[in-house]
Write a structure and sequence with these properties.
This protein has one helix spanning about 100-105, and strands spanning about 5-10, 10-15, 25-30, 50, 60-65, 65-70, 85, 90-95, 110-120, 120-130, 135-140, 140-145, 145-150, 160-165, 170-175, 180-185, 190-195, 205, 215-220, 225-230, 235-240, 245-250, 270-275, 280-289. It is mainly β. The protein has a domain at about 5-150 and about 235-289: Beta-galactosidase, Chain A, domain 5. It has a nine-stranded antiparallel beta sheet with strand order 7-8-9-10-24-20-19-14-17, with no helix packed on it. Strands 4, 12, 13, 18, 21 and 22 form a six-stranded antiparallel beta sheet that branches. Strands 1-2-3 form a three-stranded antiparallel beta sheet, with no helix packed on it. A hairpin with a 5-residue loop joins β2 and β3 (about 25-30). It is globular and about 55 Å long.
């Protein structure tokens, strides 16, 4: 059975499961729950880590150096049991190492480490990928955290996403779970997007580039969540239709392109890591009253 680790300070409490190294709860000192509760009637996820792919692969199959491997949507890390490698009152680090099971779908010696850290009113979630193999290692990685919508105290108020860079990034959509690079008009106006549930009738809103390195999620009367992103150039926003959450998803890598290559290394925005190297990807969220 999965185990759980709790980290906390005077402002935030975070629970993390060994299954997927997935955050299970984010709670403020006054008891406000900010993370989706995982109600399976809508979506059982809460904050999964996506690795070694983001999104779907055609026929749930990827190719690596021309050889086909089975790969479920968003990869295997979110359903894998991690090992607690280190912890303190305000930090926990879980690790997933390559095994015979992972090599059946991803033939590399890798180490995926996921850290959750609370510092003041800020939570940081970081993923480190290490290539222990003798060849270059392609992968995608992403964060899929669901936050409550409406925010506590924000019932009836507009919920707004505001990009730090005030941009109007191009929007693309999925077709059968795969990317269509046909551009749609940006829903942002001078960096501001008032959320409407009908926006997600056609699945996720995906912004391949231009959304910048930070955004604000807010509603009048509720707390403000300020996100910053490190080494995560892609952004998606997603809601299961009718569900009371919004996923803020920074990625490095996206679903395969509809009609495009099955090669993992050629998926849009895939990362490639040289042998012996480590890459870090992270997001932080600062909670303000």
């Amino acid at each position: 059975m999965p185990s759980s680790t709790r980290i906390a300070n005077d402002h935030l409490t975070v629970d993390v499961s060994s299954l997927g190294a997935e955050m299970q709860a984010l709670t403020t000192a006054d008891g406000q729950s900010l993370l989706w509760n995982g109600d399976a009637a809508f979506w059982s996820g809460r904050s999964p880590i996506l690795f070694p792919i983001v999104g779907k692969a055609p026929d749930d199959t990827v190719e690596i150096d021309g050889k086909a491997y089975p790969m479920n949507q968003h990869g295997f890390a979110r359903r894998a049991e991690f090992t607690l490698a280190a912890s303190s009152a305000t930090m926990c680090r879980y690790e997933l190492a390559a095994s015979e099971a992972t090599k059946a779908s991803y033939p590399f010696d890798f180490l995926l480490a996921v850290e959750h850290i609370v510092d003041g009113r800020t939570l940081t979630v970081a993923a480190e990928v290490t290539n222990g193999d003798s060849r270059a290692m392609p992968f995608g990685i992403g964060f899929h955290s669901a936050f409550v919508w409406p925010l506590p105290g924000g019932d009836g108020a507009d919920h707004v996403i505001t990009l730090d860079n005030k941009a109007e990034p191009d929007l693309i959509r999925l077709s059968g779970g795969l990317l269509s690079f046909a551009k749609h008009p940006s829903p942002f106006k001078e960096g501001r997007l008032v959320l409407d549930r009908s926006m997600f009738d056609a699945d996720a809103m995906i912004f391949p580039e231009g959304a910048g390195e930070g955004l604000l999620y807010s509603a009048e009367g509720g707390p403000t969540l300020h996100f910053t992103f490190d080494n995560l150039p892609n952004l998606a926003l997603w809601q299961k239709p009718g569900a009371p959450f919004i996923c803020v998803e920074p990625w490095h890598g996206m679903a395969a392109e509809n009609g495009g290559s099955r090669e993992l290394a050629r998926r849009p925005y895939s990362a490639t890591l040289a042998p012996g190297k480590t890459a870090r990807f992270a997001f932080s969220v600062e909670v303000s009253a």
